[in-house]
Amino acid sequence: MIKRVFSLGLSAALLTSTAMAADAPRADQVKFRELYKELVETNTTLSAGSCTLAAEKMAARLKAAGYTDKDYQVFTAPGKPKEGGLFAVLKGEGGSKPMLLLAHVDVVEAKREDWTRDPFTLIEENGYFYARGVSDDKAQAAVWVDTLVRLKQEGFKPKRDIKMALTCGEETSSAFNGAGWLSKEKRDLIDAAFALNEGAGGRLDAQGKPIALNIQAGEKFPQDYKLEVTNPGGHSSRPTKDNAIYELAAALSNISKYDWPLEYTDASRTFLTRMSPLVGGETGAAMAALAKDGKDAKAAAVVTADPGYNGMLRTTCVATMLDAGHATNALPQRASANVNCRIFPGTSVQQIREKLAELIGNPKVKITAASPRSEITKGPPPLTPEIMKPIETAAARLWPGVPIIPVLQAGATDGAFLSAVGIPTYGVSGIFGDPDGNGVHGLNERIRVKSLYDGRDFMYDIVKQYAVQ
Predict the structure, then answer these.
(1) Which end of the chain, C or N, has fewer beta carbons within 10 A?
(2) For the whole model, what pTM was predicted?
(3) Residue 187 and residue 94 in one domain
(4) pLDDT tens string 169-223
């Protein structure tokens, strides 16, 4: 009875949502927007913000909805007072093992002088929300808090506990990583049959039409390498060919020219096969050809011209930071760079280091691998009927006919920490993005207003379905 009433009620709400999309938002969407705005406008960069403050604000939202002090806790680490997080739970009847909703609230740095708009003010313009974090990952974090609030206010009684963890440190390797800390120090607290996380959404075509909903089925492993060249230096009036900056620049140039070999998982081959007719044109045809023959160089050149597809099909290494010299009138005594690699499953950190050394071909360039961010996951979690059925049901209500396609995540998420301790973690949000990546990690980050509201309905739907399994 609960399932039937829910399905009919939600279906009506979703139909209403579609009808009103071009008009004013629904009353519940207006309330959600207030929560979302508060979270987005709370600066959570490592340099000047506070994840703890964001966690406290979201905890206040839960308290106002009726959660008691026993239902949630803001946590921090010694010496990291601003890098805290929030754990909360809506208690169930205990019929099934808990589920976990995971999202990070920290964001990539953003300089006001570089942005068209203030990166820490939520601005709605031409059908988009603009600000740092509107997509990555405060959209999902806000939806999870909103979902717990709505369920509490409805008096919903789940069969299983619905746990939520909003964490810090996902975007910066030097920060306190809340997901890693919970996995190692509070494993029992977050114990769950599975977790829902960022990592995949939907893809829109150039006209904004949904073409595929992706589910994360595995992810690449992030690894930083420090390249460093040292030199005695000297006066800039006596230049020599032995220059630390030049040698570092040559090393980086060699790396930039190299295309790592194409590699495939079952998920990436399935992705190519199912996406090819949806993408169409030259790229679609190339995807089909590559799915049949992974060594087709002509097809590979077409497909990998898209940065998103390229990242799915090979290891990538790119220079992300530079530091060199000590004075404008002196030869550089030191030059260093950070190279960020996203390693394809099955390849070790040391193998990549050895390949970088081979590409550079200069023993004067010292290569040091940074401490790994997390353990390398063994493989993707299984896409079982229990996991897929709620996703398929909710997707059919919102986007009938849009296929659901597994994808190998080219980036890296906090799901790696959970998977390493035995909690299967699935990247799914239902938020559809533009082909250009929506400025995530870059300038003028944005998200379509309709995509966010539809994703909110989708995530609320699947949580409620999983909760009564």
Answers:
(1) N
(2) 0.83
(3) yes
(4) 999 878 899 999 999 999 999 999 999 999 889 999 889 999 999 998 788 888 9
Beta strands in 257-383 (DSSP E): 316-324, 330-331, 334-343, 366-369
- Overall domain count for the chain: 3
Asked if residue 402 is part of any domain, the answer here is no
For tokens 């460093």, the residue is 228
Are 43 and 50 in contact by the 8 Å Cβ rule? The answer is yes
Q: What is the pLDDT of residue 378?
A: 64
Same domain assignment for residues 177 and 124: yes
pLDDT tens sequence across 320-370: 999 999 999 999 999 999 999 999 988 999 999 999 999 999 999 999 999
Question: Which of 377, 264, 255 lies closest to 316, judged by CA?
Answer: 255
Alpha helices by DSSP H, 349-448: 349-360, 385-398, 415-420
Spatial separation of the C-alpha atoms in residues 109 and 103, rounded to whole Å: 18
Q: Does residue 95 sit within a domain?
A: yes
Domain boundary among 255, 287, 302: 302
Strand partners, 432: 202
Helix %, strand %, coil % for the chain, to 5?
40, 20, 40
| pLDDT over threshold 60, residue 3 | no
Q: Is the peptide bond before 137 cis (omega within 30 degrees of 0)?
A: yes
Rounded Cα distance between 241 and 330, Å, is 14
Element (H, E) at 256: helix 244-256
- Parent domain of 270: 264-302
Residue 174, both tokens: 């030097």
